[in-house]
Design a protein that fits this description.
The chain is α+β, with helices and mostly antiparallel strands and 392 residues long. It contains nine helices and 14 strands. Helix 3 packs antiparallel against helix 4.
């Protein structure tokens, strides 16, 4: 941090706490005046230690040190008016106050260092989020996409929930998942699965084949990196895979133990039911039998995908968040507005206290042509490339 930045931060802190600084200063002045005008048998000087103790909570190291010095000076002034500096009582009071003031400065210094470390951790976690959960394109093929990620830990921005999209010719494939567990293991598994999805999505013709490839990838990761973990056998990833062709009015879904998506069509909200299959990463504990379910997904329809942290969030009375009841209120919203409304309503329901990470992803099919894969071509509602007039 440059000198100018340090000065700016120091000035902002001082401006915010200058009113509170009057409290320890007032205590020092009051105790000093009252003690000087009190009989010698009354000793109020030891109360001066309250001033630097209070300052620890409202100021930084320099302010705490300054208040401590003023408190010691005030104790010296009291000693001068009551028998001089050579009396054992006053000498012990001055030394004790100086030691306690120094301890207050040390406590403040340790606290500020912890704050700096926490700020650095937050910066790193934000960088990790940008690297792992990169913002999804708002428009891809014939789709509008919006998403949000809410981390349960206030100190972190990323956990085991994940989402990703891949453009395959005239189709878009979508992944949303939830890694069982917390901490770095969950983050590592989420990152590995998203990387595997981006590669495997281009190599497998069907969603069941893609899901099986992701399952094998999750098992390899678990065997290689989680082999020493006592709970490695309990690690798994629930996931949903979607494939949405540009042409037609259908979408395909493969279910891997994840909460089913909600379809908003013509103002109505319905659950997209499909045959359930085991989560990813079960590693041979169950049969890998996965199917693809085709359902209607026309122009103007919206799919809401989410992780269980959304529907399992509780309010103060223990009631779960009623997503299916609330969603019709925003059935006509743009995906961005829909995700924002769900997020705001969820935080209001829980009072801002999330016990689990929650990811929300809204996907809407449009009737108009949009930029295709990587913006290199324009595709119409039938999935065929359109002529870019600007090139001719």
């Amino acid at each position: 941090m440059h000198l100018g930045q340090r000065f700016a931060v120091t000035w902002q802190r001082w401006h915010a706490t200058r009113a509170l600084v009057l409290l320890p200063l007032g205590l020092i002045a009051t105790i000093t005046v009252v003690d000087i005008h009190s009989p010698e048998s009354v000793h109020l000087g030891p109360l001066l230690v309250v001033a630097p103790a209070i300052t620890v909570a409202i100021g930084g190291v320099w302010l705490t040190g300054l208040i401590g010095v003023l408190a010691v000076v005030a104790q010296v002034v009291i000693a001068v008016f009551h028998g001089g500096l050579t009396t054992p009582n006053h000498i012990s009071q001055i030394i004790g106050l100086a030691i306690l003031s120094a301890l207050a400065v040390i406590v403040c210094l340790v606290r500020d260092r912890r704050r700096a470390e926490l700020a650095q951790v937050r910066t790193v976690s934000e960088a990790a989020q940008r690297a792992l959960l990169r913002p999804l394109p708002r428009r891809l093929g014939v789709l509008r996409i919006s998403c949000t990620y809410l981390a349960a830990a206030k100190e972190a921005r990323i956990g085991g929930d994940l989402y990703a999209v891949a453009r395959i010719g005239n189709r878009t494939r979508v992944l949303i998942g939830d890694v069982r567990g917390k901490g770095l293991n969950a983050v590592g598994e989420a990152a590995a699965l998203m990387g595997a999805f981006q590669e495997a999505a281009h190599q497998h013709a069907t969603l069941p084949a893609l899901a099986s490839a992701l399952d094998r990838s999750a098992c390899r990761y678990s065997a290689q990196f989680l082999g020493a973990d006592d709970e490695a056998e309990e690690h798994f990833i629930t996931a949903l895979l979607l494939e949405i062709p540009d042409g037609g009015s259908v979408a395909r879904l493969t279910h891997c133990g994840h909460p089913p998506p909600l379809l908003i069509s013509r103002g109505q909200v319905m659950i997209v039911q499909s045959s359930p299959a085991p989560p990813l990463g079960m590693c041979g504990l169950t049969q890998d039998i996965r199917t693809s379910h085709t359902f209607s997904f026309g122009a103007g329809d919206t799919l809401l995908l989410y992780t269980d942290g959304l529907v399992e969030a509780r309010d103060s009375s223990g009631a779960f968040y009623p997503l299916e009841e609330r969603l019709p209120l925003w059935a006509k919203c743009h995906p961005d507005a829909l995700v924002e409304c769900v997020q705001r309503d969820l935080l209001a329901h829980t009072g801002g206290d999330l016990r689990d990470d929650a990811a929300v992803l809204a996907v809407q099919r449009t009737a108009m042509a949009h930029v295709g894969h990587l913006g290199s071509e324009l595709v119409g509602s039938d999935g065929r490339p359109m002529v870019d007039l600007k090139r001719h």
